[in-house]
């Protein structure tokens, strides 16, 4: 008898239905297939989650976080109903109330504020990814006090990129994965854009391309890099400008690209007085260049002009020189030579020169051409697209320093000098970028009782005249954004809201309204101090911050410190809009947006926070949310997504517009729009024409496509800004020119830090004598902020976080794995377990962020490793710098944007005995009471058969 091959079902039925939506386990926003099974009660429940192969972001790839989303939806820590505080703040004593009562309480707090003092509301949101909507709500309420988390995350990167080239990394752009041959990362944490970067690195390494990782810590992406540069934290800008020095000295820069597409040939006023250092302009205000063909002074965008990088212009004995001359004068200086900077960077001069040589070799010796005709904004048609296959990527690592803005600008300038931005093989913008700063709104702050604010809260200033200052020079905003303390703070300063409100500086507020921002724990500097601020009372026994409303999906540490809790849904139970008006999912080859929708219905009395805002707006009668007769324009957030128009034909979603869903970008409201998104897998893509693929800021095919899509109202070509005129305007004010000038104590700082060309300056904090070790935190790839460490699957990957210590410091302090160390900063002290790590900068210690939890939070047991062995470096960091003897306390922030300088922390370390109390990490704060209690010992279930 012949052998019979066993019959195996290779395609078993794994679910009863697949519902496609968008992941929310990190900021990648990948497409997911949610497999549903029918349970014994006939209800469909989530069985498991996989990647959607048709999705433009992840193409089916899904990481551990995404797969573990099922555990978020079933987390015991989920809030169950609105809560009203009945005990002291911080006690965790609440009673459940109805939604009607909760909204009545909120309206009772908000209505008199709106009628009498709109600025008394401070509305700040965390990583909610719906800032165009929350900003619209705050604007219609009328408060000037709105921002999201960017001020303590990555505003330096975003603002540095937009002020320099009209966009930045991550959500703004990406490497040309199909053509790049050398990819260089600076300070990229593992949770940022993880699936696309992993896919991209895999693609380029398969082709033999090289990866260089610049990071004090060799983990994640740096672990697979061909070359790891273990730089000293905070010196990235010095390293980059040294590379610029070497490239300029060797002539390895793209002069043709610089002359055509940047302000390198623009002439700078060399005369004295209030115009010194500004651009020479024509009667229409356009920057002037010398035309190489005619030798004439002309506007930069005149058809047929060929700007001259070397020509000067003399008037009345004064020689006006182009930006390129000023750059050469600065960066060819010996102060930027590798030999002058290497020791501070923790590198050798030879290493810097070798990296610069490799960049130059690939950019110029391996340049290539694509046979693609295109026409530029001066009307010149080009038969080829020139490829320079070097690309860069960077994120929070270089951004979260007090010199982060200038460092980010330096990195963008390096790309531009090489001619690798918006060319084949280089860095490519994602729609709706590129946009020059002039295309964005300026910040607004005019308050009128019972009326909307006069414009958007956040934006881009172009000079001192745009600062948010009252007539007496005091700040308009509670966080002091857009003031002389941080003039270009495009994302606001969320990390300063609580301390400023507590101090009543610049004024007292009535209500702090926050969403998804764990400010009493891992999202604040000075954690213990912030807890005290939230609970502190005045001489009358009243809380110094009178009212706190908070919304979250889970019982986080922040919940205990609120007076009213408006419980949010989990991400599979809600509508969300990943919009072109906000933070879309575009790729360089196409505009894309996406939705989330309730693939399951909540089994608790919870509502999506954005819908709660709609309900509050309706009750408050806020313009933008109600009709003239006072009736509601929108029932909930889904209704808003479909029916709201920011301008005629432009709404939150760009796809399936028009009454029948046939229009793209611009079009009438489509009542079935969300259904059509669901049918399409939860996303929409409109691909860019091939002739518009590169040179987007100058390519008229792209500019016209962008207008058709509704990204611009008219073509908006512009020059990259190697020299930033807005920054020079602030310097001029500090030099004594203009009606608005900085206060005396800030004059010198503004003049020194706001240089129009990228500089590097030391960030060593005053009061750091004896504190010589750099201390950093980093996000693990398996976590997304606080959420991941309650997740039953992800906790198995990261249940605790030791302090990683380099071999040199381990030996110097007599430490071995599992020993304990006391780590001290000028602000605080922790005692924590240590582990040796060889692949680490010799003078840097680090740990994973957001692993450590406070006892009682997140429905974890009090002896959970996250609450006993886990810890935060936040206890060592203060929102203010140590006193330096001038009577002032300076913010621990970048002086230009106000971004929190998390990574400037300096510490000292010594071996310590294990803490007597069960060897728990110190400080061990008392447990907080959770309104949801503690989860079961075993968390298990099975859906269907």
Automatic annotation (TrEMBL):
Location(s), subcellular: Cell envelope
Q: Where is the 4Fe-4S Mo/W bis-MGD-type domain?
A: 16-77
Main localization of the protein?
other
| One Pfam family named in its UniProt record | Molybdopterin
Instruction: Please list where the region (Disordered) is annotated.
Output: 915-945
Gene3D superfamilies in alphabetical order: 2.40.40.20, 3.30.200.210, 3.40.50.740, Dimethylsulfoxide Reductase, domain 2 (3.40.228.10)
List the record's Gene Ontology CC terms alphabetically. Answer: cell envelope
The organism's superkingdom is given as Bacteria
- Look up the record and name the cofactor or cofactors this protein needs: [4Fe-4S] cluster
Q: Which InterPro entries match?
A: Asp_de-COase-like_dom_sf (IPR009010), MoPterin_dinucl-bd_dom (IPR006657), Mopterin_OxRdtase (IPR006656), Mopterin_OxRdtase_4Fe-4S_dom (IPR006963)
What Gene Ontology molecular-function terms does this entry list?
4 iron, 4 sulfur cluster binding; metal ion binding; molybdopterin cofactor binding; oxidoreductase activity
What SUPFAM superfamilies does this protein's entry cite? ADC-like, Formate dehydrogenase/DMSO reductase, domains 1-3
Keywords of the record, alphabetical order, are:
4Fe-4S, Iron, Iron-sulfur, Metal-binding, Oxidoreductase
Q: Which PANTHER family match?
A: DMSO REDUCTASE CHAIN A, TUNGSTEN-CONTAINING FORMYLMETHANOFURAN DEHYDROGENASE 2 SUBUNIT B
Q: Which family does it belong to?
A: Belongs to the prokaryotic molybdopterin-containing oxidoreductase family.
What is the recorded name of this protein?
A: Anaerobic selenocysteine-containing dehydrogenase
């Amino acid at each position: 008898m012949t052998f019979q091959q066993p019959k195996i079902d290779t395609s078993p039925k794994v679910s009863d239905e697949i519902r496609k939506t968008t992941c929310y386990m990190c900021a990648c926003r990948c497409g997911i297939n949610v497999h549903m099974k029918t349970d014994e009660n006939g209800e469909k429940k989530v069985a498991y989650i996989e990647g959607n192969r048709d999705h433009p972001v992840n193409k089916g790839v899904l990481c551990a976080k995404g797969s573990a989303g099922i555990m978020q939806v079933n987390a015991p820590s989920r809030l169950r109903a609105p809560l009203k505080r009945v005990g002291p703040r911080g006690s965790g004593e609440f009673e459940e109330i109805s939604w009607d009562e909760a909204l009545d309480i909120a309206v009772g707090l908000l209505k008199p504020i709106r009628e009498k003092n709109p600025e008394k509301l401070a509305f700040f949101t965390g990583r909610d990814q719906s800032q165009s909507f929350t900003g619209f709500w705050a604007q219609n309420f009328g408060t000037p006090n709105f921002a999201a988390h960017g001020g303590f995350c990555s505003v330096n990167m975003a603002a540095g990129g937009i002020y320099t080239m009209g966009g930045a990394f991550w959500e703004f752009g990406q490497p040309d994965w199909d053509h790049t041959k050398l990819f260089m990362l600076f300070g990229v944490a593992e949770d940022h854009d993880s699936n696309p970067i992993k896919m991209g690195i895999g693609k380029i390494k398969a082709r033999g391309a090289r990866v260089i990782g610049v990071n004090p810590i060799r983990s994640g992406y740096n672990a697979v890099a061909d070359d790891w540069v273990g730089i000293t934290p905070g010196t990235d800008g010095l390293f980059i400008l040294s590379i610029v020095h070497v490239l300029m000295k060797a002539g390895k820069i793209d002069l043709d690209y610089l002359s055509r597409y940047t302000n390198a040939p623009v002439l700078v006023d060399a005369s004295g007085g209030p115009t010194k250092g500004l651009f020479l302009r024509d009667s229409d205000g356009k920057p002037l260049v010398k035309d190489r063909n005619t030798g004439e002074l002309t506007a930069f965008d005149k058809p047929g002009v060929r700007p001259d990088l070397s020509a000067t212009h003399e008037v009345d004995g004064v020689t006006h020189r182009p930006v390129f001359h000023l750059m050469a004068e600065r960066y060819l200086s010996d102060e930027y030579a590798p030999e002058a900077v290497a020791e501070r960077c923790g590198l050798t001069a030879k290493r810097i020169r070798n990296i610069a040589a490799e960049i130059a070799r690939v950019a110029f010796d391996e340049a290539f051409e694509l046979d693609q005709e295109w026409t530029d904004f001066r009307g010149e048609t080009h038969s080829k697209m020139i490829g320079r296959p070097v690309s860069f990527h960077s994120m929070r690592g270089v951004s979260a320093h007090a010199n982060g803005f200038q460092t980010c600008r330096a990195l963008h300038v390096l790309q531009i000098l090489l001619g690798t931005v918006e060319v084949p093989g280089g860095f490519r913008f994602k729609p709706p970028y590129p946009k020059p700063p002039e295309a964005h709104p300026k910040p607004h702050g005019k308050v009128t009782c019972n009326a909307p604010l006069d414009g958007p809260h956040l934006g881009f200033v172009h000079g001192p005249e745009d600062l948010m200052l009252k007539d007496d020079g005091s700040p308009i905003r509670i966080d002091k954004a857009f003031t002389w303390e941080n003039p270009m703070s495009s994302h606001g300063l969320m990390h300063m809201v609580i301390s400023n409100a507590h101090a009543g500086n610049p004024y007292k507020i009535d209500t702090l309204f926050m969403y998804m921002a764990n400010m009493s724990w891992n999202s604040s500097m000075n954690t213990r101090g912030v807890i005290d601020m939230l609970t502190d009372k005045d001489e009358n026994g009243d809380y110094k911050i009178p009212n706190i409303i908070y919304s979250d999906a889970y019982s986080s540490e922040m919940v205990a410190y609120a007076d009213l809790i408006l419980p949010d849904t989990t991400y599979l139970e809600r509508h969300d809009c990943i919009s072109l008006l906000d933070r879309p999912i575009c790729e360089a080859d196409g505009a894309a947006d996406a939705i989330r929708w309730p693939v399951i219905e909540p089994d608790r009395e919870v509502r999506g926070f954005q819908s709660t805002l709609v309900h509050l707006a309706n009750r408050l009668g806020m313009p933008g949310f109600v009709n003239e007769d006072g009736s509601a324009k929108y029932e909930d957030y889904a209704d808003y997504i479909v029916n709201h128009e920011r301008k005629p034909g432009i709404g939150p979603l760009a796809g399936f517009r028009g009454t029948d869903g046939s229009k793209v970008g611009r079009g009438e409201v489509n009542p079935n729009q969300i259904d059509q998104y669901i049918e399409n897998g939860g996303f929409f893509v409109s691909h860019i024409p091939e002739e518009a693929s590169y040179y987007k800021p100058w390519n008229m095919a792209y500019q016209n496509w962008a207008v058709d899509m509704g990204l611009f109202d008219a073509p908006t070509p512009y020059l990259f800004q190697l020299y930033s005129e807005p920054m020079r305007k602030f310097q001029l004010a500090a030099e004594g020119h203009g009606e608005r000038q900085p206060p005396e104590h800030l004059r010198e700082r503004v003049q020194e830090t706001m240089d129009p060309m990228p500089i590097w300056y030391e960030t060593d904090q005053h009061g750091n004598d004896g504190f010589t070790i750099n201390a950093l935190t980093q996000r693990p790839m398996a976590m997304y902020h606080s959420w991941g460490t309650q997740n039953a699957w992800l906790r198995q990957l990261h249940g605790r976080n030791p302090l990683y210590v380099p071999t040199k410091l381990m030996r110097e302090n007599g430490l071995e794995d599992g020993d304990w160390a006391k780590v001290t900063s000028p602000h605080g002290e922790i005692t924590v377990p240590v582990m040796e790590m060889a692949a680490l900068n010799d003078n840097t210690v680090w740990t994973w962020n957001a692993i450590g939890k406070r006892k009682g939070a997140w429905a974890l047991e009090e002896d959970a490793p996250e609450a006993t062995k886990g810890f935060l470096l936040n206890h060592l960091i203060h929102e203010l710098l140590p006193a330096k003897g001038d009577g002032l306390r300076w913010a621990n922030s970048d002086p230009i944007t106000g971004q929190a300088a998390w990574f400037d922390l300096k510490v000292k370390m010594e071996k310590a005995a294990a803490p007597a109390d069960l060897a728990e990490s110190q400080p061990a704060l008392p447990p907080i009471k959770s309104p949801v209690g503690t989860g079961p010992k075993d968390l298990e279930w099975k859906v269907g058969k």
